[in-house]
Design goal:
The complex is a heterodimer. By secondary structure, chain A is of the alpha+beta class. In chain A, 58% of the residues lie in helices and 17% in strands. Chain A has a 6-stranded mixed barrel. Classes of the chains: A alpha+beta, B alpha/beta.
């Protein structure tokens, strides 16, 4: 054990005497690990944010949105709406207990001197408040619910935390599109920062403000009767929507996405899974290149130090001692590179996080698990050791007399 | 008659294959090094004397014949066993000093002891004592680059004696030094021989160096020509 300690010191000193080259080799590993840590912690954070949002919507919900199911992003941000007839068709479908419609869009809200882009959500307040309270756990932190017909809004909990520099209070006014609105209520947290950053108002008021067609909605959330299969009801909703459209336009192609919450989580996780696989793949290539860098540096250094190896063997170093010293050198390169990459990766992810939180359209926190850090460290040390193995073995196998004969 | 030999070379040949040409470096060499000897191997450059020295020090293996170190046939030992035995029994001094440039004087002297698993405290003490005995008490923590040639060779001598070996072999130890410094180095070696009874084998082409030793082996074209005691009895002659 004491010997390992000494070999460690020798290895460190060897690295230090070639410090520029050592650092350049380390940089190769830093870049690879940096990519893995920053991108994975970001995508993991996005995944968590989306899952939280889905859970906040409640278990057995079905979402109905205009647009193709194949194009989830387009569906979420696209401009199409559900017509009044569509909504009626959904309500009439067998197995549907209640329907909550809503519309949403980004809008610039002004409070005192500050302006921020926020999400505006319109809900039919009269009909949906009970649903929201019962199934989604909405309740007020302060104030009261807005009254339809008045220019009143409720805001999420994040508004009293950090949306504006000056925290908002009940009965103060915000300005949207040049019109004043009174904040009458502040909601308790809905479970995720994204929802907590919204402005909620009556859908009538929303449509006045945004110019969206009266009676339509961007999305419908369907609560089904207890004991029924969400998939079956989703099929039925799709069928009745298709019939409605056919009757009205004579078209057969209905452009609706009817998605159960379970499926939604599955789909987003799938997409993020693909993104993460791609990240790992590309970062692995970067690390592979870094590893080749280590191998190259080690081979060069063995060539330069052949004589030293000969000396060490002449004065009694076993093959295993030489092998150990060189493996430690490669391992240190990997470890330092990995640590550097992890630190840089976390810093980079934090910066992205701060940037997105300054702009509350989409709230998420990066997710840096101890597992991810451990994985980064283990991966880099392993890369170092594997890359260093063949050079180290060659060094160990040198014959002392031949090694001594070589001149630098 | 001395009983236990340190190294015995029995009918050793060393043949290098250079392309299609065979180069015979050593031819039918038999030689014994016994405790308490001070042997000088002399010969012109290219005579095979360094190859012979590498055989005695078990750094090289013969093409034919046997090298027996401390009663053990080295061809039967594994590489690691041989390293271990060599590290314990034989110390090396080279013409080019061959210190490790990254380590200071003390660490260079401690290195052979690390490979023998000697503990730090003992290592430090012994290395320090050795450096003092070669007159380098003021250079203990200097890097080789900060030392003169003579000082470097003295560090190398201290290193050669680190594991208290029975045999120290020196390949042209004064070859890179001026004559005054060379003389000093030879005096230090002779001192180790006389005071501590170390067995020493020196290779040189300098007849003055031979004056320090008790036994001289002359080698030419890979063969021993004559092996005789200083100013006296001829042990073997061709």
């Amino acid at each position: 054990m004491e010997q390992i300690n000494e070999y460690f010191k020798i290895a460190l000193r060897n690295l230090r005497t070639r410090s520029l080259r050592s650092w350049l080799t380390i940089l190769g590993i830093v870049i690879g690990i940096f990519l893995i840590i920053s991108l994975l912690s970001l995508s993991e954070g996005v995944k968590k944010a989306i899952n939280e949002q889905m859970e906040a919507m409640g278990g057995d919900m079905i979402m109905v949105m205009p647009g193709s199911e194949e194009n989830i992003m387009g569906m979420m941000v696209g401009g199409e709406v559900l017509e009044k007839q569509d909504i009626i068709a959904i309500e009439k479908t067998k197995g549907v207990e209640s329907v909550l419609i809503m519309s949403y869009r980004g809008i610039v809200a002004r409070y005192k001197e500050e302006a921020k882009m926020v999400f505006l959500t319109g809900l039919p307040w009269d009909e949906s408040l009970e649903l929201l309270e019962r199934y989604q756990g909405w309740n007020l932190l302060e104030g009261r619910w807005p009254v339809p017909g008045k220019r009143e809004v409720a805001v999420g909990k994040q508004w009293v935390i950090d949306i504006f520099k000056e925290k908002i209070k009940v009965n103060q006014e915000i300005v949207m599109k040049g019109r004043k609105f009174k904040v009458v209520g502040i909601l308790n947290s809905l479970g995720n920062k994204s929802d907590d950053s919204n402005i909620y108002l009556d859908i009538g008021l929303y449509q006045d403000l945004t110019g969206e067609k009266k009676g339509s909605a961007r999305m419908a959330m369907v609560k089904i009767e207890q004991g029924l299969s969400p998939d079956k009801v989703a099929e039925d909703i799709k069928e009745s929507l298709r019939e409605t459209r056919k009757r009205r336009f004579g078209e057969d192609t209905a452009d609706f996405a009817v998605i159960t919450s379970e499926k939604m989580i599955g789909v987003t996780n799938n997409i993020l899974g693909i993104i993460q696989t791609a990240i790992i793949l590309f970062a692995s290539i970067a690390i592979l290149v870094g590893g080749i860098g280590i191998t190259n540096t080690m081979f060069t250094s063995i060539r330069e130090r052949t004589r030293e190896i000969g000396i060490m063997k002449a004065i009694g170093a076993k093959n295993s001692a030489v092998l150990t010293i060189f493996l430690i050198e490669a391992g240190i390169i990997g470890l330092v590179g990995g640590t550097g990459g992890i630190v840089l990766g976390i810093i980079c992810a934090k910066i992205v996080e701060l940037y997105t939180q300054a702009n509350p359209l989409f709230y998420f926190s990066i997710s840096i698990s101890p597992g991810l850090i451990l994985f980064g460290l283990a991966f880099s040390v392993l890369t170092g050791s594997i890359s260093g193995f063949f050079p180290a073995r060659r060094a160990a196998r040198l014959k002392p007399v031949e090694a001594l004969r070589s001149y630098e | 008659m001395k009983t236990e030999k340190i190294v015995e070379l029995k009918n050793v040949w060393k043949i290098y294959q250079l392309g299609k040409v065979e180069l015979i470096a050593l031819k039918e060499i038999s030689l014994e090094v016994a405790p308490d000897d001070f042997v000088t191997i002399m010969g012109a450059s290219g005579s095979g004397k360094s190859t012979l020295l590498n055989m005695i020090g078990c750094l090289d293996s013969p093409s034919q014949g046997n090298v027996v170190l401390k009663g053990k046939d080295t061809s039967l030992l594994s590489e690691d066993q041989l390293s271990q035995l060599r590290g314990k029994t034989v110390g090396f001094i080279f013409q080019e000093f061959n210190l490790l440039p990254n380590l200071d004087a003390l660490e260079n002297v401690m290195l052979p002891m690390i490979f023998q698993g000697i503990l730090l405290e003992e290592r430090k003490k012994r290395a320090r004592d050795l450096l003092i005995s070669v007159g380098l008490e003021k250079r203990i923590s200097h890097q080789p680059a900060e030392l003169s040639g003579g000082e470097r060779q003295r560090v190398a001598i201290a290193r050669a004696f680190a594991n208290d070996p029975e045999l120290v072999i020196a390949d042209e130890p004064t070859g890179n030094l001026d004559s005054t410094t060379g003389k000093k180095i030879m005096e230090i070696l002779t001192d180790f021989h006389k005071k501590e009874g170390k067995t020493i084998v020196v290779v040189t082409h300098d007849p003055h160096i031979a004056d320090y030793s008790e036994q001289i082996v002359n080698i030419k074209d890979g063969e021993i020509i004559v092996n005789h005691k200083q100013r006296g009895e001829v042990l073997w002659s061709k």
